[in-house]
Amino acid sequence: MTPSSMPKRPSDPLDLVDVDALLTDEEKAIRATVRQVCDDLVEPHVVEWYEKGELPVARELALEFGKVGLLGMHLEGYGCAGMSSVDYGLACLELEASDSGIRSLVSVQGSLAMAAIHMFGSPEQKEEWLPRMATGEVIGCFGLTEPDHGSDPASMRTRARRDGEDWVLDGGKLWITNGTIADVAVVWANAGGEHGGIRGFVVPTDTPGFEARELHTKMSLRASVTAELTLTGVRLPADAVLPEVTGLNGPLACLSEARFGIVWGCLGAARTALEAARRYSTERTQFDRPIAGFQLTQAKLAHMSTELTLGRLLALHLGRRKDTVGLRPEQVSVGKYNNVTKAIEICRTARTILGGNGISGEFPVMRHANNLESVLTYEGTVEMHTLVIGQALTGESAFR
After folding, report:
1. Is 226 helix (H, G, I), strand (E, B) or coil?
2. How confident is the model at residue 199 (pLDDT cuts 50, 70, 90)?
3. Closest CA to 366 of 296, 299, 280, 303
4. Do 382 and 376 form a contact (C-beta atoms < 8 A)?
5. Distance of CA 395 to the CA centre of its chain
6. How many CB atoms lie within 10 A of CB 247?
7. What is the tens place of the pLDDT at every residue in 216-235?
8. Which of 77, 100, 135 is the C-terminal boundary of a domain?
9. What percent of the chain is modeled with pLDDT above 90?
């Protein structure tokens, strides 16, 4: 091979092995569209939102995301875009490259609330809610986690009982994204063995007895709406129940959808932190030279870049599999376990390259690292995904 015929240096220094070559032109165009939306609507304001611990324009963002088909984008029909799993993953990556809280807004709307209705709802429920949720006119939330029951949802205390033809719900949910801005909540409750055990309910949030209180003491996901839900004698008609599922299979299937988005999304946070560190290292001078010229700095950058590349390849493989034959739960667990743990490691290492500046809000690194502390926990803690993988390897359950 002559020097003139050798491949050129990559145009993107963070894609040394040309992962982009595995994407179609349409996938790249979708990614570029989401990136532009984030650059226009999120990037100019996200530091202020994070510092104030609020997302005051959540509803406005949802409407804008709806205009470009981001909400429930991987669902078919009812006004949804019907895009591929890879398209959705790329969108999640770009959203979380701006902030994990912004990706959570989209994930909870599309992969939890909308997906639950789409997979398990009646035709009437789908027609009533999904078209307006796809446009962002209606915001949804997903009520599963409880104050005392996170990793063990089978022990939930929220109860649903029959009273004549109606259902009556009592209980509470915690750490509910979009809770105080939601128009509709998908709430999971124990209806007792005679009614199928765990059941899902479509609950308009203006129903008497439904209350949502925003949480303001978060040190992570601060640019996000997080709430506690209280249900006190919430009376619903018989047709409020999701008819096509009973038991934990329902909420767990929805969580698998959301976890798939996280497999991609966390890489966006890692990419932003890595690029900030790489750029900083070329501009920061110590001992009369850029710190990018020191071996320890290059070792950090090389390790972070390699882990990010491997995470992208894993996410893309899982996305292609999901679009063709589907994914088993342990495959999603492998993706979340690997990519989130590596993403948070990348952010923490990037912080060391920035030194004291790494903790400053003028740079995105610490914000992304803090956000990933939440991502490490929600939709299944790293410990639970470890045990899912362990059970798949050994055939032995270590959950109890």
Report:
1. strand
2. very high
3. 280
4. yes
5. 29
6. 12
7. 999 999 999 999 999 999 99
8. 135
9. 93
pLDDT at position 1 over 60: no
Phi, psi torsion values for 251, nearest 5 degrees: -60, -35
CB 259 within 8 A of CB 85: no
What's the CA gap between 127 and 122, in Å, rounded? 9
The count of structural domains within the chain is 3
Last residue of a domain, one of 185, 212, 240: 240
- Helix, strand, coil shares of the chain, percent, nearest 5, are 55, 15, 30
Radius of gyration of the chain (CA): 22
On whether the CB atoms of residues 368 and 359 are closer than 8 A, the answer is no
Check whether 316 has a pLDDT greater than 80. yes
Catalytic residue among 27, 96, 307, 379: 379
Q: What tokens does 28 get?
A: 């790249």
Query: Is the Cβ–Cβ distance between 101 and 243 less than 8 Å?
Result: no
Q: In terms of residue numbers, what domain contains 72?
A: 12-135
Known catalytic membership, residue 379: yes
Q: Do the domain assignments include residue 90?
A: yes
**What is the average per-residue pLDDT within 48-68?**
97
* Residue count (the chain): 400
